[in-house]
Amino acid sequence: MTQGGAAAPLIEAAGLRKVHAPRGQGAPTEAVAGIDFRVRRGEAFGFLGPNGAGKSTTMRMIAAVSPVSGGTLRVLGMDPAVQGAEIRARLGSVPQDDTLDTELTVRENLLVYGRYFGLPRAVVRERALRLLEFARLEDKADEQVEALSGGMRRRLTIARSLVNEPEILLLDEPTTGLDPQARHLLWERLFRLKQQGVTLLLTTHYMDEAEQLCDRIVVMDQGRIVAEGSPAELITRHCTREVLELRFAADEQAGHAQRLVAAGERVEALPDRLLVYADDGESALAAVHATGAQPLTALVRRAGLEDVFLILTGRTLVD
Amino acid sequence: MTTALPTTAGGPPAVPSPGDRAPRPAAGPLDSLVAAVPALREFGYWMRRYRRVWRGSVVISVVNPLLFLTALGAGLGKLVDAHHSGHLAGTPYLHFLAPGLLAASAMQNGFVEGAFPVFQSARARGNYPAAAATPMRPGDILAGHLLFVAFRILLSGALFLAVVAAFGVVGPLRALLTAGPVLLTGLAFAAPLMAWAVTVDRQSRLNGLYRFLVMPLYMFSGTFFPIGQLPSWARPIAECSPLYQGVALTRGTALGTVHPGAATVHIVYLLVLVAAGTVCACRGYTRRLHR
């Protein structure tokens, strides 16, 4: 409060819930089960979690296209249930599946979308030129979207979402299904936007994406927030500095899991390998060897968000 | 590497940032209208798509009635007129058939424009969800699309009427008057269909409805023969069909034989379908797009 209006959160959720009506005779499903978070202006905020964690549903509620079932949600200080259209006018939205019209050209997609915001024709035409450049699609401007690659379509979707000069950009799984080169190009474009002062909200189940782009992350699982913080904070708070990955012959792993507990601070057993959490992976490996265990392979790496999720939920992110 | 964004020569940053907005070029009167009436933006989208295919659609809308009226009206009609049995009350078969076919084609256009594009927009093509992410409300999206459907029904109907006029069945004034019943008939099918199509999850359901509802209506609603020819048990059923109401109104208007009382019944019947369809569609669109 002391810092005045600028410090007011751009998005604020308290006890936010979403219950989907049952299909047929099933029970209603609670996609989002009471979550609290605040997003500040200029921040890059990530929802991390596996499929079905409630990330997309949360994004849709923020985007004012999904009515809130319970709790409160304020976006840009407004209630989505009352001022949905006003909120949407100031948001950019990149849905999980591209909703481009593949029969229209790249430029036409931008023009049509800009018109949906009620912008004058001349304004939209001028912005389309700049956005084509931003998306590196100048050469493709008058080609049908049908002819574009997945990465190009994604860039066009992002460019399209910027046509109304949004204050907040919502990105639902922005790089899922793209090859590494296309992902890096997208990250670089998103990073530029962030530096321009656009607040980014994104969902992902990729650790590296969250680590690259997000200042702050909430980890979601089964409709709840299980942890919150910067990527580095989350790792130091919930995890050791390093991880030792051990592979054993298939029938030996179960026996070793018990005996190796002392080698690190914690041991997690995955179907194909054991993870030993320790601040010093090399000395943990020495301790393993000292027990007489002979892993087929041993690898020491830095701990990441994947490990945080595994420790918090007992499950891996990508099933 | 600098963090500056690519700019167009001398222009503002390539990427918009809040508070650093480009000076706006002057907005024209059309821009103000589109800014005030969101449905026109959706209409604009459909017109942009239509611009790509309008030539073919115009040719079909002229050739189709030309073939039907030549073969059935002028060809088969000669035979019918020669064995005239009094069922047509002295009306040449061509004159009886043309307005019937016209109303039936309005129904078909209402179906084709109201069912498939709505299904695709809500699902695979995704243009409805895309529009719903903007300030457009589901009702705006529906209204704009419905406006385009009305435009298509009216355009096809006008071309059909031009052919009918060329056959000498109606004069220019009656042709103009008949456009109203044609639009009403088409929308009486389109609006309820849009309400349904936005909820449908498989295209095969749309095809099924076409085969089992539209085709029988087409055949047995007084299009090709007066429903007095039907067995007595089937007549009341045929009279209740929306296409029969549309055919009767269209034929009565085109030939100048309509009674004001009967016309009122037809018009109210069709208007109720349009209104009920639109209300249901508005709910269905909201449920689908704001889940």
UniProtKB/TrEMBL annotation, chain A:
Keyword Nucleotide-binding: yes
Gene Ontology, cellular component aspect: plasma membrane
Domain ABC transporter: 11-247
EC numbers on record: 7.6.2.2
Organism: Actinacidiphila rubida
Family: Belongs to the ABC transporter superfamily. Drug exporter-1 (DrugE1) (TC 3.A.1.105) family.
Cross-referenced PANTHER family: ABC TRANSPORTER ATP-BINDING PROTEIN (PTHR42711), ABC TRANSPORTER ATP-BINDING PROTEIN NATA (PTHR42711:SF5)
Its membrane topology: Peripheral membrane protein
Keywords: Antibiotic resistance, ATP-binding, Cell membrane, Membrane, Nucleotide-binding, Translocase, Transport
Entry annotated with the keyword Cell membrane: yes
Molecular functions per Gene Ontology: ABC-type xenobiotic transporter activity; ATP binding; ATP hydrolysis activity
The organism's taxonomic lineage, starting at the top: Bacteria, Bacillati, Actinomycetota, Actinomycetes, Kitasatosporales
Major location (coarse): membrane
SMART domains, A to Z: AAA (SM00382)
Protein name: ABC-type xenobiotic transporter
GO biological process: response to antibiotic
Subcellular location: Cell membrane
Gene3D superfamilies hit by this protein: P-loop containing nucleotide triphosphate hydrolases
Automatic annotation (TrEMBL), chain B:
Protein's cellular compartments: Cell membrane; Membrane
Any single GO BP term: response to antibiotic
Keyword Transmembrane listed: yes
InterPro entries for this protein: ABC2_TM, ABC2_TM_bact-type, ABC_2_transport, Nod_factor_ABC_transporter
Family the UniProt entry places it in: Belongs to the ABC-2 integral membrane protein family.
Pfam family, one: ABC2_membrane
Residue stretches making up the ABC transmembrane type-2 domain: 56-288
Annotated organism of origin: Actinacidiphila rubida
Topology within the bilayer: Multi-pass membrane protein
Keyword list, A-Z: Antibiotic resistance, Cell membrane, Membrane, Transmembrane, Transmembrane helix, Transport
Superkingdom of this protein's organism: Bacteria
GO cellular component terms listed in the entry, alphabetical order: ATP-binding cassette (ABC) transporter complex
Transmembrane segments: 53-76, 96-119, 146-170, 176-197, 209-227, 267-286
Protein name per its UniProtKB record: Transport permease protein
Broad class of the protein's primary localization: membrane
Region (Disordered): 1-23
Single GO MF annotation: ABC-type transporter activity
